[in-house]
Amino acid sequence: MTEAPHTVKSYEEELKNLNANIIKMGSACEEALGKAIQAITTRNSDFAEAVINDDEKIDKYEALIEQQVVNLIALRQPMAIDLRETVTALKMSSDLERIGDLSKNISKRTLLLNENLPKNLVDALNRVSASVQKQLKSTLDAYLERSAPMAVNVWEGDEQIDDLTNLCMQEVIKYLKENEKNLDDGTHLLFVTKNVERIGDHTTNVAEQIYYLVKGEYLEGDRPKGTEPIVSGEK
Amino acid sequence: MIKIKAKDVDVFYGKKQALFNISLDIEENQVTALIGPSGCGKSTFLRCLNRMNDVIDICSVKGKILINDFNINDKSCDVVRLREKIGMVFQKPNPFPKTLYENVSYGPTIHGMAQSKQEMDEIVETSLKKAALWKEVKDRLHEPGTGLSGGQQQRLCIARAISVRPEVILMDEPCSALDPIATAQIEELIDELKKEHTIIIVTHSMAQAARVSQHTGFFHLGQLIEHGSTDKIFKNPDNTKTQDYITGRFG
Ligand SMILES: Nc1ncnc2c1ncn2[C@@H]1O[C@H](COP(=O)(O)OP(=O)(O)O)[C@@H](O)[C@H]1O
Ligand SMILES: [Mg+2]
Description:
- The complex is a heterodimer.
- By secondary structure, chain A is mainly α.
- Chain A has helices at 9-42, 45-76, 80-112, 119-145, 148-178, 183-215.
- Chain A has a single domain, classed as Up-down Bundle (Methane Monooxygenase Hydroxylase, Chain G, domain 1).
- In chain A, helix 1 packs antiparallel against helix 2, helix 3 packs antiparallel against helix 6 (183-215) and helix 5 (148-178) runs antiparallel to helix 6 (183-215).
- In chain B, the strands form 2 sheets. In chain B, strands 6-7-8-3-9-10 form a 6-stranded mixed beta sheet, sandwiched between helices. Chain B has a 4-stranded antiparallel beta sheet with strand order 2-1-4-5, with helices on one face.
- In chain B, helix 3 (100-110) crosses helix 4, helix 4 crosses helix 6 and helix 6 packs parallel to helix 7 (180-193).
- The A-B interface holds A 3-8, 11, 77-84, 215-217 and B 206-207, 210, 234-237, 242-244, 246-251.
- Magnesium ion binds next to helix 1 of chain B.
């Protein structure tokens, strides 16, 4: 935070603490997503198990942040930038929690996969995942820097993720056609791809919050859209 | 609709300048809150709006104050009529040492607003009703006003102010001597009163400014630093000084 410190030091501490917890929670999500992708693309069960077990940590951050936000509102009545810090922390933590959940879901499906995956599919999955991971990292950087332009960059990058998701979906559909006997694996892969895309969406939500936090106004206009989804799910 | 337009107002106490080039538009039938640290000139500005600074010998006011497009600093302004139109409520409830009835009927008597006892009774009753005090005092109208609780006294002062049907009501920290319940009653009253009056309130409580007003002006060292919708000032002020003040980061 770049503002001058509060006259009341304990208030200052509470806001700093909230800020630190968002960053810790964000890092935990980055780690979960990274491990979940590595686990599925390299078939590493240990990593998958770790993601599943560590999700509890992320849930606890969410609960803690919610409690801190409620306390701040009840006891400090934050105004202006402090109000935005407080309210966006609540919203960001709920998007981050979803990112944790979706990473865990990818890992659960990873443990259920039977066959090795074709190289084209792994490559496509790696491409979309790498892009989402980069978005998440940029988002957390934007939060640290309180940078609206960085948040806008992330927001605009969501389009590319939609495109890469579709390319990955095409590979999964090809896999389903070629491996009719292995419908289970194919279905898991469909969900995994969709989950990666949704992690991208939650990341974009966080970026929107950061923009509001810094600017005090909402990003205008519709979120940039890539190609129409091949398999649509709820947004 | 703009009710009051302050244009380039400077105020001096002797050689010391207390307000610098203040320009501010006040919307009709809305509540405007003035906030800022002690000594920044809020009360001085408020007193410009009904020429109360006239009574301070060393005080001189420059610039224009247009009320209904008429410059009240003009020589032709009838100050008695002006104060009838612009009522004022102070920090410390200051009922006259007279009965409740006399407190409220005082203004209407001076301004010859009632032709009969019955008409005066009606003015007193409506004013007390509008000040949300009628129910509590209707059976003791002829007891002294000073016998009321602090919150009741303040509502009596509001009844006294509205008895002459002012267009504008100026309130200088009207709740700072009141407990939270009496404060809530005054705040509810302010919300009601704005339907018929334009209200300007000076308050030290940021939360109160946020609760009661639609517009907020932030004063600092005699300057109007920022003014705008209350919503904007408390969610996303433009000026860092405003933000520092309302978030408790000042000095
Ligand atoms: N009657 C007065 N005589 C001399 N100086 C005054 C008088 N009233 C106010 N001032 C000065 O003018 C400045 C603004 O005061 P005031 O309008 O009372 O501020 P606020 O209401 O914001 O606390 C202060 O520096 C104060 O000392
Ligand atoms: Mg004052």
